[in-house]
Amino acid sequence: MRGRCRAIAASAAAGALLALADGDARAEPAQRQAAPAAAAQAPAAAAQAAQVTMPSPIDPTDPPYPPGGAGDATVVLRLTVHADGTVGAVEVEGEEPFASAAARAAASWRFEPARRDGRPIGARILFRVTFRDPRHAVPATPAAPRPAPAGPAPPLESAAPAPPPPPAPPKPIDVVVVGERAAPMTTSMTREEVRQMPGAFGDPFRAVEAMPGVTPIASGVPYFFVRGAPPGNVGYFVDGVRVPLLYHVALGPSVIHPALVERVDLYPGGFPARFGRYTGGVIAGETREPSRLFHGEANVRLFDAGAMVEAPWADGRGTALVGGRYAYPGALLSLFSPGVELGYWDYQARATYDFSPYDRVGLFAFGSHDYLAQIEDDGETDVVLAGDFHRLDLRYDRFFGRGGRLRHAVTLGYEQSSNQDGERAGSTRLLGTRVELSAPVSEPLTVRAGADAQLERFDIDIRENDGDFPSRNDRALARLFTSREDLAAGLWADVVLRPAPELEVVPGVRGDFFSSGGETAWTVDPRLATRLQATRNVALLSAFGMTHQPPSFLGAVPGLQIGGLRGGVQTGLLASAGVELRLPEGIKATISAFRSGFFDLSDALGNRLPGTDIGLAQRAELRGTGSTHGLEIHAHRSLSKRVGGFVSYTLSRSVRHVGRETFDSAFDRRHVLNAAAAVDLGRGWKLGGRTVFYSGIPMTLDYDLWGNDGLNGQRPDNDDEDRPDTEEDLRRREQLREQIARYVRGLSLPERLPAFFRLDLRLEKRWVLREGRTVSLTVEVLNATAGKETLQYECSLLRGCEPEELGPIVIPSLGGEASF
Predict the structure, then answer these.
(1) pTM metric for this prediction
(2) Rg (CA), the chain
């Protein structure tokens, strides 16, 4: 069991909508000034096609007249309204002290958020605030006098001032969409929605496992097969920067503080041309735009604590942000797992400065550290996972009209991992650069293009056993992981064509060059995506793409990647088509069919031939082909509503072909179902639950050759169990394997392992204080049903075949959160 758990632990080893609107209570028109995010308007038809509704205030928006003010004044606010209705960045144009008074008041306003196709999204609006000097207020209109009685006219008195004319009726809000629509066949979730998802612990990246097309390798382990592609073929990006490790110690939170994340996009196939070098899906996180207001968030849980603070400087032209998280699980582990050592931390820092309304420079640094070890009975420490990584991204942004942007960035990186003895097994130094251009040429045409290159230096120390007879798996590891320099460079371009408001076509192409260990390869990847708004509530979607990737291992492990291009690069052909439905009550549903083909595939997890028992490194050297086809159903109503939820179901089959053998992938799960619901109980209480069900993987056998369950309970010549294998050991091992295989063939074992079910629960109490401050208390449990998962059967001549179970992995969380 411990060996299987260690294998799992080792295997684990854009954008938001920008819109302009005229929105003060008096509906006075506000003229748009030049700004980095947008400087021109798109046709109203585009907004209608996108089904966008703008934010509307739900609280009073009349700031008090500031002390020291004189006369009437008008201030124009440029507000960023988040998907939860809170106000983020506030930019102000106007005279003091009115500008500061309006900015302070706006920070506490609440809005009904903007929505695209019924889903809450972030938006940027113009909001006019008019201050009236109370000393010059117009008096109330007096009541109309009664008719004078007959008789002498009374003495003349000064006439009352004429009443002002009635205010003009409010003008309609003019919605202008200048952001990019999400790519077809993309699933996105904002941080505000994920906060309400049970089992995600408020972490947007942990919500990926609930998206359609995603198959977990084990319950609670956030590493996945995406439409049949193994975890090593799934790319992780944060603001366009590739990260080697997205989650702490396999089961923990993501390495980016949730308050910094605006949204997470899953591209399961046929992704945009700017993403490359992965034959499976791409998971991309986008951080929030810099805010010109001082704000922050902190959270404390039983096992870790985190915080993030951002503040403006240089009169709002610059911003500075720091954040991080630190784990202290020692107390809990001493009670429930006294033989386990665990620790992790991460950090984020960002600074930006606007030289002009069109030019911005920025720095984004982030990194993490992880450690997981098992204390043996003899007191020795067996390191299961230990590593860290660091990234520094220097960027320059130039903003153009119509929402165009040019970004040039340089990335520096360092990462390393340690072996079981705690010594460094591998390290990597990285230098990368990228250029990205998005240029709206006209209303129906946007051109996007870019280039990127990455140079990595690997220093790897993977040693074979010290004896004369290292195992075959040891020798395979030494061949796969070598010290070297790798270079990858690419060019890409695509165009977004809108020949009609209802139709969007995105053809693209990407070319890459790979060099590793003296071997080189060139690749060309065509891409095509379409969206047709057939009716107001029905859209037809499709995506196709070819992708290439160097050989891969279990997953992203800091400092360790397979070297060389032996067997060539992997190739993926990814195709999907579906229909998107807008249903009543704000429900959005998609039904998609997909097919994926993989060639020269290296899949250490999935390429497990039935009836064989070879090591992971040996399986990584096996090259074959694979295919996956299936159906995805996803229905969603925003979890931020009073009653919200989603249903995500994937029906699929994943097959591998190695040599003359054809078999189901070792992690082929035919059925994967996620269903969640969240209910606002009132008075700040919110209750949610999520069920997770998936069918079992194909029957997997592990032969117990030595140890207490081996032949006669003895290992040959077992005076020293830590010594290297001898020729006699290897001969006896093959004999035992053949004997157990003959024994297993005579048994009636099921073709698949048992299915798995779990229930996640979440209860939150939230207090909303003055000026937008909030405090919340959350109780959350992953796997409240304490379900165990069967990963394989262990077979020996003495005990027969018995199921080997993982878990139960139950993760409780009690914590508090505060924001200002």
Answers:
(1) 0.74
(2) 30
